[in-house]
Amino acid sequence: MDAIHAIDTAIYFDSNGYEYLQQLLTPTNYSKIFILVDNHTNEQCLPLFLSNLATNVEIEIIEIEAGEEQKNIKTCVELWEVMIELGADRKSVLINLGGGVLTDLGGFVASTFKRGIDFIHVPTTLLAMVDAAIGGKNGIDLGALKNQVGCIVAPKCILIHSEFLHTLDSRQMRSGLAEMFKHGLILDKAYWNKLKDLSSLSTNDLYRLIKQSIQLKIDVIAEDMYEKGLRKILNFGHTLGHAIESCFLEKENSKQLLHGEAIASGMILESYISWKLNLLSKEEYLEINYFLSDVFETVHFSANDIEKIIQLLQYDKKNEHGTIQFVLLNKIGKAISNQNVDNTLIYEAFTDYYKS
Prior knowledge:
The chain is an alpha/beta fold.
């Protein structure tokens, strides 16, 4: 596949990406290469990546534990200290080989280390390929509050290597599909309709759809890199979805939700709100609800969970002047941002979630 060129970065696919890295990762450009992995990608992805990487620059591997709970300032401090101990300088480069947690975290670590060094994303999950690694958003959580500290800095490049998808289980694949569904719902009804026929898609079809999803997001970012306006629509499903994800992160002895699972629930709930506010037709709401409910398991919320989720909305990054701002659907393929929603309607959405 041909590369996608975006603001300050380029996205390469498979062998073309490794050819570009071979040209980029030379002693003339970089003093040392640091590759950040978690314990899963170290075992399942690093050998394949290194077997395709040709460079004369010294390489250091840094491993952290996998999981959202690692995406915090404590891990950042540990990584900065390790990089200093291993001789990192302003001419070092950090390659982030992993899913969305690792690309968010690694991008933030690199963007702030010695006031910023180059970094490269090599996403290994579907979710990271189509969303987390794309667009220059880097950040960490504050406790269970998602992405409260961060920056927008573009990676030097992004390498999408489709072979890494073979390391994922079905649950991780579905999590990534949630973001692809979102791109169709907010931007392109024809793309949404393609994704709805999942059972008929071949592997090559999926790869083409991944590239199309990336292009849809890149087109938005090209108009609004710093999320002053249009880019906000990429947060559809995330106002409630992030609050749901944070709620389950805080719950002891509870099965944690993957990001895409929480976002799928958020998209159903926010589609209901869109319908009730006369923005979305009932027919399209039911289409979204039935399809997403068929792909993703229903999440069970207690009354206390719902109260906690509504409390967590106050920390959403889109909020302005103390007002919670939703992204809602005007129809499939078109979203609108900066929408105020009464709590009564949010409670009603949760009630409907269980009826469907």
